[in-house]
Amino acid sequence: MVEKTSVMLTVINDSEDDHIRLTYRADRYTKGVNQYFRYQEQEDMGQTFTLLKIGPDEIRIVRQGDMESEQAFAVGEIRTGYYRTAQGLLSITTRTSSISVQLTEGLGTVFWDYELQLAGEAAGEYRVTLDIRGLDEEEGDSTLV
């Protein structure tokens, strides 16, 4: 049986135009060499559940619910994913230049940067930092802080 623990997951997403910082309460699972984090995103229009898989050579993000998408990141590789819109599927392509995973027992920091293409068109360069910390026992149950 896979053991579940709760953590606070802060996602910092930087691009040329934006700096976004969101914090979630997430469930953490370990399976083999991979860490999995599952959390609920609160959006203006509905709810989305996100599964974040962090492995030694690849990071994968799968969103399901009112918003659906899948992205994968591996250094030096082009990975294809998707973003579902009301009009249909939009192809997402990532080219990752670096990944740094510094986790001890599932806690710590993960960083990666990548170029994004949407439907074959350049959409920018992004830098993502994840800060993963344990929960204090007195923390509330809020999903989005």
Helix content: under 10%
- Cα shape: globular
The number of strands is 10
Oligomer: single chain
What is the CA–CA distance across the termini? 30 Å
Q: Largest beta sheet, briefly?
A: 10 strands, antiparallel, barrel
Report strand %. over 45%
List low-confidence stretches: 137-145
- Helical element count? 0
Average pLDDT across residues?
Answer: 89
N-to-C SSE string, H for helix and E for strand: EEEEEEEEEE
- Computed Rg: 15 Å
Neighbour order of strands in the largest sheet: 1-2-3-4-5-6-7-8-9-10
Structural class: mainly beta
Please outline the helices and strands.
Elements: E1 4-15, E2 19-31, E3 34-43, E4 46-54, E5 59-65, E6 68-73, E7 78-85, E8 88-104, E9 107-118, E10 121-134
Antiparallel strand pairs: 1-2, 1-10, 2-3, 3-4, 4-5, 5-6, 6-7, 7-8, 8-9, 9-10
Task: Please characterize this protein's 3D structure.
- This protein has no helices and ten strands.
- It is mostly beta strands.
- A ten-stranded antiparallel barrel has the order 1-2-3-4-5-6-7-8-9-10.
Key phrases:
145 residues; mainly beta; 10-stranded antiparallel β-barrel; globular; disordered C terminus
Summarize this entry quickly.
The protein has strands at 4-15, 19-31, 34-43, 46-54, 59-65, 68-73, 78-85, 88-104, 107-118, 121-134. The chain has 145 residues and is mostly beta strands.
